[in-house]
Structure formats: structure tokens, C-alpha cells
Task: structure prediction
Amino acid sequence: MGYRAVFRCVAGCPGDYPLDEVLYRCPACGGLLEVGHDLPALAARPPAEWKRLFTARDGAADTPGGSGVWARREWVCPAVRDENVVSLGEGRTPLWPAGRLARDIGLEHLWIKQCGQSYSGSFKDLGMTVLVSMVRQMIADGRPVRAVACASSGDTSASLAAYAAAAGIPAVVLLPRGKVSVPQLLQPLAAGALVVSVDTDFDGCMAIVARLAVDEGLYLANSMNSLRLEGQKTVPMEIVQQLGWDVPEFVVIPGGNLGNVSALGAGFDMLEALGLITARPRIVVAQAAAANPLYLAYTRGWRFEPVVARPTLANAIQIGNPVSVGKAIRTLRKYDGLVEQATEEELANAAARADRFGQFTCPHTGVALAATITLVERGIIRRNDRVVVVSTANGLKFPEFKQRYHEAALGFGVPYANAPVMLPNDYDQVRAAVARLG
Result:
């Protein structure tokens, strides 16, 4: 049967708008939009049938691109025709049972959702497949789209450039100069995007690209475009399915521009509304202390004020004026949410601690792990609670972060540093080093 999805105002202003309309804010109030689905039509299929369908599609060859997003297409973006889907095999990422790490930090049940095991190395691929597929369909239907564009602190630009290249659509990305890792800079360059390195921070890049979208006819690919969040809301759907259609007590996610927070809520909302789950998790947003406007709002009873984000090792969340803050606060209120922060020392050591148990953790996941450790130590997360930490990017994108940690070059204590043992070409000395393993 056919399903329908439209843009709607998050504040409840009347009006439905087609998903192929170039629209980012409500025409009536100027607030952000969200994608609304025809839930009665979706509810005509019983929960058990949805579960069987999604399970059957896992790994199915006929799912576009082997995608975990398009395996749930009825719940995401049903209007995109098969020939316009642009997929790079996103989604279906592992839910890693971190048993040894869990015991080390005082938990019995901890999983890490490995969203960085994706084509461009971050969870942004989940949203970009939806957005670029819709743009491809708009172009096929004769709509004038000059290029897709974004401001980025690293991962969004890499993902947008990759998907735009796969679709044959020009891409423009604005990066804050000197504030992204070398791999994050190289990814959009290699994909052929127009990369503009601007002498400002992410918030400055965002202000410029928002104006370009109006003045130059560029299609905006940042998370203020609700199409992005439709793909990202499949993260909780995958988590629940991977846990045998069960819900953990806590889901912890790093927060920067905060679109991922409302995406988590949207995914759990649909699962609950359509009867696939009967409980909700508590959502925890983890911010770097150097860029913590949501944390400060949380401590003030949700009174939000932008901040000037200071430099942080977690560069992708160095954002002082997040676009999706209103949606994020609404989600956290509904999900009995928490916001915690992590210092540079805490996030770096949490990442390195996780690495000792088999991870190669990005600094942003380090923020989420540090927040988890803090909440365990305070007794807010109890020993037997089931906790899922969302890892948003692949640690391989941040070699300078790892190198500086293990060289003890970060300016604070690094108890998990592991420097190489430098020896001459001498068997006996190498053997002696090995013998010290015990």
C-alpha cells in the first residue's frame, strides 16, 4: 500500500509541505520543520509483521545498496523511487557488546553502536542517503538544484561529498579552517567537492552557508533540513532490533548541532506508536565542556543561550549555537533526558580506556563514554542498567588525536598512553623487551 510523508512545523502551525519542496523552516513562524508520517496507514500492518519484514530485509540483495536505511523505507522516505536511491551501503552497523569495558567501568551491560563503520566513517551517511536521494529525484523531475551544500565540522562534509559524487551532483562544503582532522579535510577534496576553508568556526560557516542557500540556489544539507534526520532515526530502530526488539534503560550520544538527539527520539517515537516497543529509554546527551550550550541550558532548567565554543579535541561537536537545540530539548523532556559534559582530559582518557578493550575510539565517542562513566560513578546509571553508547565516527579519522595521546603531548595525564619501544637491530634486546611482558 502507499504511504505518505510530509514536512510539518515542529511548533504545530497548520500546513503540510511536500518533501521535494525546498523548505527548511515553517513559512508561518520561521521555526524548524520535521517529517510527519501517515501513522494510521503504517499501523494497518501489525507490529509482528513489521518485525518480520525488517528482519527479512536484513542483508537482502534486493534492498537498495544493502542499506539499513532503505530496508525501512516506509518509515523513512517512501516517496523516493528506486531508481533515484543513492546508497553506499549505510546502516546495519554492529552493536558491539563491550563486556570487558563494562566491567571495568562498573556496569554489567554495555553496548557500543558502531555507526562509524559506514562508508564515509560516520553516522552522517544515514541521513545523507535520504537527502541526496531526494535531491536526485527532484532533479529527475525537473526541479532546478544547482548544488548541495553544507557547513561542517568534518563528518557532514565527508558524507555529503561522497553521496553527491555517487549521484553526480555538485557539492559545496564550508569548513572552519584548522579545526578538522587531515582525513576529514581530504575526504571531500578527494570526492571532488568545492571545499571552502573559512577563517571562522562551525557557527560562522553555518551562517554563511544558510545565506548561500538563499542567494545562490544551493540545496542545504545540514541537519536543519529534516530529511537528514529521517535517515538518522534508523539508529534506534537498529538498536532495538539488534537487542531482540527490546529497549535499553539508557542511550548515550555525543551532541554538537543536536540533530542526532531529535533523530533518536523520532525513531523511538515511531517504534512505540506502531507497537514494536512498549518502553522508552532515557536519552543522555554528552557534550565537551569546551562547547556545552545544551549542558548549561540543562543546568538552568532548559533556558538556552548560545556560547562561543572553545577548541576541543572533539572537533566535530565544537558548536556553540546548535541549529536543532529546540528539537533536542523537546526530545529530552519527553525521554526523561540528561545532559552531561566531559573535560578534555576525561574524553581523551575515556577514549583510550575503551581502546584498551578492543575499540579505536573517536574523540566524540570518548565524550559519550566519559559521560557514561560520570553517571555510573554518581549512581544515576546503576550497575545492572542496560546502556547503549552511540559511537558516531570511526577513530581512523582522527590519527592526530591518537598520536598526541600516546606521545603524552596533550598537556594532562594520559594513564593509558602506550609509546613504542625504540630498539636497535639486536635480537637480544628485542627478546628482553618481550620477556618483560611477564
